[in-house]
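Task 17 of the worksheet. Students: predict the tertiary structure of the chain below and write it out as structure tokens. Keep your answer in the requested format; marks are given for formatting as well as content.
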Amino acid sequence: MTFHSYCVIGRVLVAGCLSLLAARSAPAFAAPESFALMEYLYGRTGEGKEIPLGYLMVCVRMSEAGIMFSVDMPDSGQILQVETPVDDDHNGVASFHFDDDGWGNAGRGTFERKGQSGKLSLEPTGARPDANKNIRRNYGEYALSEGACIHGGEAVRAALPPPTVVSVHYLVRERAPAHLAETVALPVERVLSRLARITRLASATTNGVVDVEIQFEGETTARDLATVLAEIDQVHFGENVQIISRAVELRLARIPGYSEVGKL
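Model answer:
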């Protein structure tokens, strides 16, 4: 083998090693990339019980500069926004930290892409005394919608299946069960009829159970549900009526048979 042949082989080996090193140091995320994650958001009543409030939209954008994500919080309309460099561990996990999310919170987290799903974990590390919106500990793992995420979450919101029907279920003990429509359903209907954007309000009574169903014009938002809960808390029933339990259910029009129920 000639000296020239050894040189050629050496150049090939060096090029191969450089290519391998470049491949190992390449970021796990092509830039720019954007993803949309979704989670069902729950709130807690005064008794500590969870109630469904609506969808939480998370928009994630990856770039050479780092990670940017915005969290659209439907219960308040606030949008948490973080833009920070990432430490890419070359295994598809981007870790980051931030000192202020715009609402007074500091935190750290990771974003991991797994094929058609992704996981955004967010852990609070501190908050100013005047922080008016505390971040949640973990957003979970959900399907990714590539390219549909724009800043502020508008495209994500448009793609989500909105809850369109709110139902309130009462389990009632009444001395005169035949009068449930008059003693329970009618007072609830009177209160809820004051709400704007209601297109349908109906009730039914059977064997000690009262169901009141509300349909809003357009999609039902978390704010709609919060308003419904606040209004039905103002309903006063007669002394012969004992409410054993109450539940609120949201039905999503675009997912047949799907519902989320919260016991109150």
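Marker's comment: The domain at 163-263 is CATH 3.30.70.1430 (Alpha-Beta Plaits). The chain has a mean pLDDT of 61.
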